[in-house]
Design brief:
single chain; 131 residues; alpha+beta; Ribosomal Protein L22, Chain A; 5 strands; globular; metal-binding; lipid biosynthesis; EC 2.7.8.7
């Protein structure tokens, strides 16, 4: 096995400003299921959730080495909370990282510091870590 790691840090208020400025931000960044989970958030939790998802998708793109753009779209990456509230990452479409055995994700919010930090770990079958 080999591993690919992506890490990202975002300002919650910067993500909030982008969402408020660009009407299509939510549709561009979040899947419909993620938007449903977001709708249940109130107050600071709303933008912390949004920033966490945005940052997680950036971290995934970094782990693959593709970046967001021609091979990786935000909405091909979905991070939903499981029954215990832990984030679970799934990938579809062009963003699927071939030979990936598993995806692990960690999202840390520090609202008082206006930061969200994320890490994505991709476990890759030996022999080919490229898609």
């Amino acid at each position: 096995m080999s591993y690919r790691i992506g890490i990202d840090i975002e300002s919650i208020s910067d993500v909030q400003a982008a969402a408020e400025k660009h009407k299509q931000f939510l549709d561009k960044v979040l899947t419909k299921s993620e938007q449903k989970q977001l709708a249940g958030r109130k107050g600071n939790g709303y933008y912390a959730y949004l920033a966490g998802r945005f940052s997680s998708k950036e971290a995934y793109a970094k782990a693959t080495g593709f970046g967001i753009g021609s091979k990786v779209n935000f909405t091909d990456i979905e991070i939903l909370d499981d029954e215990n509230g832990a984030p679970r990452l799934s990938v579809s479409g062009r963003s699927l990282f071939l030979n990936a055995k598993s995806y692990q994700i960690s999202i840390s919010h520090k609202i008082k510091l206006d930061l969200v930090a994320t890490e994505v770990l991709i476990e890759v079958e030996d022999g080919n870590s490229d898609s």
